[in-house]
Design a protein that fits this description.
The protein is an alpha/beta fold. The protein has a domain of 105 residues: P-loop containing nucleotide triphosphate hydrolases (Rossmann fold, 3-Layer(aba) Sandwich). Helix content is 44%, strand content 20%. The longest helix has 15 residues. Bound molecules: adenosine-5'-triphosphate and magnesium ion. Magnesium ion binds next to helix 3.
Length: 161
């Protein structure tokens, strides 16, 4: 596989991200625009699971701030992995989704994540949002984190800039 993200800052601190994620239930990753938060971090989580023979159990869900970026990031990650969207990498937005039984990483909007919280949100939940928005919705996000951790013990990541 060609490591298209190999030169990005997120990829360069890959070991640190994977180690932090493995030893903590909640991880916050902060990085500048274009550093690889959206395209690299979920792949690091997925690849680490695959490396540890847990690929078939992977159920990673990552929010994007907008519907269009959920589709765009799913496209980009799938192409970096030389795949079509709807296979390992999928997306689900209001009225439209491209996913299959093979999907291990799902890009979605916050609204879809909230709906999924009522059933099973997945084992790895990645909330991807600007710090200003996270601060604005801080109380809401704390409630969300607590409810996920108590009802569905998942690993949680916040990607922010
Ligand atoms: N569709 C694409 N086509 C070409 N290059 C892309 C595409 N998507 C991402 N990239 C490249 O990958 C890099 C990382 O993008 P990514 O979206 O992961 O950054 P980010 O840290 O999430 O940025 P932001 O804070 O703006 O969300 C970008 O700098 C860009 O060079
Ligand atoms: Mg991003």
């Amino acid at each position: 596989m060609v490591l298209l993200g190999g030169r990005l800052p997120a990829y360069q601190i890959k070991e640190k991200i994977v180690k932090t994620i493995a030893s903590n239930q909640i991880t916050v990753v902060s990085g500048a625009t274009g550093s690889g938060k959206s395209t690299q971090v979920p792949q690091l989580v997925l690849d680490d699971m695959i490396f540890n023979n847990q690929g078939s159990e992977a159920s990673i869900i990552m929010t994007q701030p907008r519907r269009i970026s959920a589709i765009g990031v799913a496209d980009r990650i799938a192409s970096e992995r030389c795949e079509q969207v709807g296979e390992t990498i999928g997306y689900s937005i209001r009225l439209e989704s491209k996913r299959s039984a093979k999907t291990r990483l799902l890009l979605c909007t916050t609204g879809i994540l909230l709906r999924r919280l009522q059933c099973d949100p997945g084992k790895n939940v990645i909330i991807n949002q600007k710090l200003a928005v996270i601060l604005f919705y801080l109380v809401f996000i704390i409630i969300l984190l607590v409810s996920i951790q108590t009802s569905h013990p998942s690993r949680m990541y916040l990607l922010t800039r």
